[in-house]
Amino acid sequence: MKTAYLRFYEELNDFLSEDKKKVRFTHQFTGRPSVKDMIEALGVPHSEVDMILVNGKSLSFDYIVNDNDDISIYPVFESLDIKDVQHLRDKPLRNPKFICDVHLGTLARYLRMLGFDTLYRNDYNDEELIQYSIKEHRTILTKDTGILKQKRVTHGYYVRNIKPEKQTAEILIRFNLFDSVKKFSRCLECNSVLMKTEKEKILDRIPNKVRTLQNEFYICIQCDKIYWQGSHFEKMNEMISKIISIKK
Questions:
Q1: What CATH number does the domain containing 173 carry?
Q2: Average pLDDT, the chain
Q3: How do strand 139-142 and strand 118-119 relate by DSSP bridges?
Q4: Per-residue pLDDT for 73 more than 80?
Q5: pLDDT at position 112 over 50
Q6: What is the 3-state secondary structure of 89-131?
Q7: pTM assigned to the model
Q8: In CATH, what number is assigned to the domain containing residue 11?
Q9: Residues 70 and 16 reside in one and the same domain
Q10: What is the pLDDT of residue 124?
């Protein structure tokens, strides 16, 4: 039996049992596991990890753990530029695009409301999520740690909160997106960009009362849905203000 000494930092502790949170602990093992296999066996998805120090040296996921190794594991630093260390994934997504799993439909809608490119369908399976993530450089947002442990996933995040408003605030904080918010710039239904349109061009498609009260209209370039600043707009605007004010 061999022994390794591990310490997980910051939000990586969310995946650990209480006796292992925010402390250095001993972990006994046999064979020749990689450090990636070891940390995932403890419940932490590799896609949440950006740096591993073994005996003070920055190493990759492929490193084979030896007896008495001292291992420190750090989370993804989306808003920091860490130099002179070996990052364990591609560079952070500075213009992030997301794809949400089947449990996060309301979160996807709220992110679109804030102007963030967010794919969602209520029937995506794991393989589809991974394929879209790789092909379109999207971060997978999920409530399932299993998908984040798959080797092909390089950008993924486990959403901690349960309520959609707090989930949205969590994403804004985690990815440092407050300065990137562009309210009501995307279609809530299909995620495409909205374009301003002339009132005269859509008169036959809007209610009579709206024709009288509203003069500014936007239309989705993909699904053709029309938007205007009615009572629904005010309610959404209030909700956005509430979301942005939420702290973890």
A1: 3.40.50
A2: 91
A3: unpaired
A4: yes
A5: yes
A6: CCCCCCCCCEEECCCCHHHHHHHHHCCCCEECCCCCCHHHHHH
A7: 0.80
A8: 3.10.20.30
A9: yes
A10: 95
